[in-house]
Design goal:
The longest helix is centred in the N-terminal third of the chain and has 17 residues. The chain is of the alpha/beta class. It binds S-adenosyl-L-homocysteine (SAH). The site of S-adenosyl-L-homocysteine (SAH) has 19 residues, from helix 3 and helix 4.
Amino acid sequence: MTGDERDAPGGLAAVFARLITATGPISIAHYMAEANARYYASRDPFGTAGDFVTAPEISQMFGELIGLWLADIWQRAGCPDGVCYVELGPGRGTLARDALRAASRAGLVPEVHFVETSPALRGLQRAAHPGAAWHDDLSTLPADRPLLLVANEFLDALPVRQLVRTAGGWRERMVGLNAAGAFIPVAGTRPMDAAVPDSFAEAGEGAIVETCPAAAAVVQEVAGRLASQGGAALFIDYGYVEPQLGSTLQAVRAHQKVNVFAEPGEADLTAHVDFGTVAQVAEQAGARWLGTSGQGAWLAALGIGARAGSLARAAPHAAEAIEAATIRLTAPAEMGTLFKVMGLAAPGWPDGAGFNRVSPATTDRDSAALP
Ligand code: SAH
């Protein structure tokens, strides 16, 4: 689809309606990919005046602790020269600003590379990081030096594929049009039984299996580069570790959940990240899986309590706001448990701070697959 088509009268909804009328239902993955491309291309969705708030926009402590984590593992790896800071989907550039400031105090001043497709957000990122280099995807990142890579709420924006169990077997979940012209989920016609993992094959009618081939592809590429170039990576997102059934696709607009199918391109579409699967993908591609922790436990282990205390002492008028931000980032009822941090590193690199590796994702998977 070209930019001109996306800007056509009626917007993306009209384009989808014409396409579905002409050729039949489109896949959930196609719908989500086009809707998010349009959504991000033209706006700054972050903050209280926007649609949603991400962790780096809640407090500088989030990016600072990530910067310190990167500097720490880089130092323990022997301070290799020429490392690059790489961020996938850097939003407003806030996380990078806080992380690079903290890292530079620890002696780490890397080249900065951003993977970002949105022209609007690239503009904001350029204002905050004039010296950075931009990439449309990972393929053009430097291939000859270690990478210190961060992706916060990036994988959740990538398109998921859904399979639904019907009376006639498994089918791809698609988007069609009802008689009133509204988008609705429908089952595809082609049998998809072969694409369903054995453990879910006998799930009841209506069951949904969700996968994210695009997220697996990104993690595979990152892991392969860590294995051949050195470095470490942090993927932070909401998600789950044990395999599960059901759709996690959701749409958010102005801080409210809205109908996924109502206005494609006008709300942020996300799906939870399957951290068990991406950890396996990373290990198969040659990276070390350092652990997957709840965001709250990880930030606590890295010392968010002490950092909050020193910020509050330096700015007593802001003490309440700092305390509120700490709770928001770490409390189990807020972002502390649903949001997870997965660490990866090159095979020869040391362990990462903040991970307690009591439950390797591979073991979780294996035990969950037992009868
Ligand atoms: N990391 C930021 C922004 C998260 S929103 C934060 O935490 O605030 C998702 C980000 O990923 C946006 O910058 C969006 O433009 C970008 N993005 C989404 N899909 C992308 C894709 N396929 N390729 C590159 N960037 C993408």
